[in-house]
Design brief:
about 5% strand; two-stranded antiparallel ribbon; about 200 residues; mainly alpha
Length: about 200
C-alpha cells in the first residue's frame, strides 16, 4: 500500500465515521440533544466500527482482484465524501467515499461480479460478528459502551453492504447484478429486511 492510498483510506474512514456519528444520532437535530461526552463516545465507536467495516470491505476487493492477477488500489472520491457528510445531517449516509480501482486490460463479467460482491459480503459477515461478540463486550465493557459497539457495528456494516449493492453508477451492485441477478436480488432483499424491517440494534441507541 503506497502513501497516497493510505492517505485516501484514512481521510475516508474519518469522514464516514463523522457521517455515521451524525446519522445514527438522528442528524444534526438529534445531535444537539446529546452531551459532549456522549457525542465523543459515539464518534470513537463509529471510528472503530467504520474502520473495520470500510477498510476490510475495500481490502476484500483488493485481495480478490489481485487473486485474479490484477493490480488494485483504493482511491477516495471527494464528491462522495462531501455527500456523506451533507446527507448525514439529515439522518442517513450516502456511503460512497471512494472505490477500489482495478487496473486490468480485460475483466470478465464473472471476475467483475466476484470482485464486487466480496466487499458487501465482508460487511454482512462483520455485522454478524459484532452481534456474536456482544457477550464479550458486556463482560469487558460498561453496558452503555458495549451496546453502542454492538448496535453501531451491526447497523453500519449492514448499511455499507446495502448501499454498495444498489445497482447504480460505480457501486458494487451494478456489477453484481450484471453477473448474477439472482444472487444480487437475494442479497439486497435480505439486507433490506435486516436493516429496515428487523432493526433490533436500534433499540440500544
Amino acid at each position: 500500500m503506497d502513501s497516497a492510498e493510505f492517505k485516501d483510506i484514512v481521510i475516508s474512514v474519518l469522514a464516514i465515521s463523522i457521517a455515521f456519528t451524525l446519522a445514527l444520532s438522528d442528524g444534526i437535530f438529534g445531535l444537539r440533544r446529546l452531551l459532549l461526552d456522549a457525542v465523543a463516545m459515539r464518534f470513537i465507536v463509529a471510528l472503530v466500527t467504520v474502520g473495520f467495516g470500510f477498510v476490510l470491505h475495500e481490502l476484500a476487493h483488493r485481495f480478490m482482484a489481485r487473486k485474479y492477477g490484477h493490480y488494485a488500489a483504493y482511491q477516495a472520491w471527494p464528491m462522495g465524501l462531501q455527500l456523506a457528510l451533507i446527507t448525514s445531517l439529515f439522518g442517513f449516509v450516502f456511503a460512497a467515499p471512494g472505490a477500489t480501482v482495478i487496473y486490468a486490460h480485460y475483466l470478465s463479467r464473472r471476475e467483475h461480479g466476484v470482485i464486487s460482491v466480496i466487499g458487501p459480503l465482508t460487511n454482512v459477515a462483520l455485522a454478524f460478528l459484532f452481534v456474536a461478540a456482544l457477550p464479550i463486550y458486556l463482560l469487558l465493557l460498561p453496558i452503555e459502551l458495549a451496546t453502542l459497539i454492538f448496535a453501531y457495528g451491526y447497523q453500519i456494516n449492514l448499511w455499507l453492504a446495502f448501499f454498495n449493492l444498489l445497482p447504480f453508477g460505480p457501486l458494487d451492485g451494478k456489477k453484481v447484478m450484471a453477473w448474477n441477478s439472482t444472487l444480487w436480488l437475494t442479497l439486497i432483499v435480505s439486507i433490506f429486511l435486516l436493516l429496515f424491517v428487523f432493526p433490533l440494534p436500534l433499540l440500544f441507541l
